[in-house]
Structures are given as structure tokens and as C-alpha cells.
Amino acid sequence: MAQLANRRLAMTLFSGDTCPYCHRVRIVLAEKGINYELHDVNLQDTPDDLKDLNPYNEVPTLVDRDLVLYESTVIMEYLDERFPHPPLMPVDPVSRAQLRLMLYRIERDWYALAKQLRDKTKASDTVRKELRDSLTGVSPIFEQKPYFMSDEFSLMDCAIAPLLWRLPYYGIELPPSAKPLINYAERMFDRESFKQSLTEGEREMKD
Ligand SMILES: N[C@@H](CCC(=O)N[C@@H](CS)C(=O)NCC(=O)O)C(=O)O
Fold first, then answer.
1. Which of 26, 50, 58 to mutate to test the pocket of ligand 1 (most atoms within 8 A of CB)?
2. CATH number of 7-82
3. Class of domain 93-191
4. What order of strands is seen across the sheet that includes strand 67-70?
């Protein structure tokens, strides 16, 4: 009985083994040391309980008692507010808005390309080149601060690290001129919360 009661108190994350959006949320959960139950979902055959919770039938989906959330950025911001330490967003409204805008931009500019590579909707070589060139183009900004445009680790880092981790899996090798970005990626991958966030499927992606 006690175990059942505890189970109900813990958060549940419906997550895919190699889903980059779930990976973002798992980094936030690890960074904040949040206790949660991982529900590993087979995306080819999603369970009925996920269908009941999320009209889009997608992962990540987070259940916290009566609250059900989906969309990685919505979940990440909720976790940051519900568990304020360590904070992963700046406090002033301008910086918060800028962070949200950057989250939106990496979604449109980089994750959209990564999705095309996964879905093979366009000639992969063209998409690979586009993503590699775009990342290489912004590489110099990673030289200026230890984290993504910030002196502090933030949701931006949680959002971008999963994409960088998957580059070898997408068949993308960054050129030497992207050294600042390559170094940044290594710093992120060395972080304890990042290591904790990895699923088995994700660990295999880099070998
Ligand atoms: N915009 C969503 C994207 C989530 C997403 O695309 N999830 C994929 C897995 S990587 C999924 O659940 N696909 C299942 C399906 O479409 O049936 C987010 O940020 O959470």
C-alpha cells in the first residue's frame, strides 16, 4: 500500500529511448535531482494510457499528480518553476523572453532539419549539409561564454545538447572551424546531469 501511495506521488515521464525532446526533459530532471518514474514508450506501438493522456500521442509527456503536460519546452519551464533550484532560466523578463525566442529558433532552424533527417523527407545529404553549415556558422558565439550565450547553465543548454549528441548518428561531422562548438559539446557531455540523462539507446548512438 505504502509503495502504491509513493508511486502516485512520483512524477512519471513517458519517454522514448532515442527521442531528443525527451532527452531535453531528462537533462532538466537530472540537473534538479528530481525523483521520477521513467515510462519507456515504444513509439511504434504507443500504450493506451499515453493515448488517453496526450491528444497528440507523443513523448515527452509528463504526469505530475493531476497535471499532464506535453511539449518539451512547456515541460522544461514547468519543472524549472516547480523545482527552482538550481534555476535554469534568468529572472528578468527581457532575458526570459530572449531565452524563449532562442528556444523557438533552434526548434525551427535546427530541430526541424534533424527531423527531416529522421523522417527522410528530403535528400539527406542536402539536409545534412544545411544543418552542419548552420551550426558551423554560429560556432563563434560558443567561444564567448561557457554556456549557450550565458554565464550560467540554462534550459538552452538542455535543449541543444541532445541535438549535438546525435550529430554522429545523423551522419554529421563538424569541421575543425567549428572548434568552439565542438568544445562546448564536450563540456555539455561531461556534465553529470547529462551523463545521468542518457538512456541505453542514446549511449549507443555515439559509439
Ligand atoms: N514538439 C514536440 C515534439 C515531440 C516529438 O516529436 N516526439 C516524437 C518522438 S521524437 C513522438 O512522440 N512521435 C510519436 C508519433 O508521432 O507518433 C516536443 O517538443 O515535445
1. 58
2. 3.40.30.10
3. mainly alpha
4. 36-40, 11-15, 61-64, 67-70
Whole-number Å distance between alpha carbons of 84 and 140: 31
CA dist 171 → 117, 120, 152, 166 (Å)? 9, 13, 30, 9
The grid cell for 164 is 549535438
pLDDT at residue 5, rounded to an integer: 45
* Integer angstrom CA distances of residue 192 from 59, 153, 205: 24, 12, 18
19, 27, 135, 185: which is the annotated catalytic residue?
A: 19
Q: Give the Cα separation of 20 and 159 in Å (integer).
A: 9
**Is pLDDT above 70 for 19?**
yes
> What is the per-residue pLDDT for 2?
44
Q: What is the pLDDT of residue 156?
A: 98
Kindly list the domain boundaries of the chain, sorted by start residue. 7-82, 93-191
